[in-house]
Request: fold
Amino acid sequence: EGVYFGTAAELKAALGGGSSEGGEEGGEAPAAGDWGAVIFNGDCEGEDAGCLLSKDGNDMDNFKWNVKEGAGVDGSKCATVYATGAAENEWDAQFFIYAKDYVFKAGDKFKFSMMIKADKEAESSAQAHVAPGSYLHWTIIGGPVKFTTEWAEYKFEGEVPAEADGMQTIAFNLNQDKTLENNYYFDNISWEVEGAPTAIQKVQIVKAENGARYNLAGQKVDAAYKGIVIQNGKKFIQK
Reply:
């Protein structure tokens, strides 16, 4: 009760995001061997920030979109995250890559790549989350992810493990060294899944009635839950 299924286009409409382009429900999905992108604006040049979010040492209670002009590869834009040198937890500073219109299932084959660097050499773990901040599994793209002071490509190709079934987000914990103050930079991010439909992909839509709150996995949550929630058809971040 309070949960039903619909297309990605319907999900966007329910959350105030309008409709998405693509085929209609019942269309033919791409065959195995075809690869479909599950995020957009990976080069940070566009205006829509819905797939790339972060929280950092300046404001650890809120998720945001932080882009720096001229700091990216070849002087382009890139996503940046600041990590304090007085962290309490490895996850005080995090970067999230969010496939908001696709729900991964165990066994999905995917390819991932990004360009990364930092002001100081550092390492990060990479976890599977459902929505950003909703932890699911401790690893998803290998690692540790190593940052140097020069742009370098990080690539991974593999399958979603059973423990990460239902994931939508790769989360990087950027305070792995809690005493290291640092700035991290992300650019040219690509995340593709084999045989991925676009608008015909079934995802879960939440109808929040009578003030109830749900996370993006369709699970009812209370006021203690932290992360993106839906209440009365509106999506917001609960602190």
User: Anything to note?
Assistant: The domain at 33-196 is CATH 2.60.120.260 (Jelly Rolls). Residues 1-31, 198-209 have pLDDT under 50 and may be disordered. The longest helix spans residues 8-14.
